[in-house]
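Async update (no meeting this week)

Hi team, since we skipped the sync, here's where things stand on the single-chain job. The sequence we agreed to prioritize is pasted below, unchanged from the tracker. I ran it this morning and attached the output directly underneath so nobody has to dig for it. Comments welcome in thread, and please keep replies under the output.
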Amino acid sequence: MNKHKMRIIIYLCMMFMSFEIFGQLKGAVPQSTVPEHINDDRKVENNSAKSAAKNNADKMKKTLKLSEKQYGDLYKALLTYETDVEKTSQSNLSKKDQFDKMNKLNISKQEKLKAILSKEQYHAYIMSFP
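Output:
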């Protein structure tokens, strides 16, 4: 074979392989054999402040190994935070005032978390929760 035909064959093979590779990267396909805990972790009941606080508290309980008292205190703190965030975002405040209020709410939440969690737990929280 001459060089020209060889180049065409190589080009076609590369093109075929790239279609094959990128076709596999299209996206995740739901699997029928997903472990039960994966589906539980992905469930979000609704977007209310109560469900957001519960979901976050449940995740933190699992990852930070919280005691029952810590979990209860954490849930109350997160519920207060989520409720205040919801009220602020639905308020008629200007965007700047909303931003300032959200900042204050976040600072207050962090102070409450520092009081509830041990130093090690708070460090793990900061490193793993955005």
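Quick observations from my side:
Helices lie at 3-24, 36-42, 49-64, 68-89, 95-116, 119-128.
Residues 44-128 form one domain.
Reply here if anything looks off.
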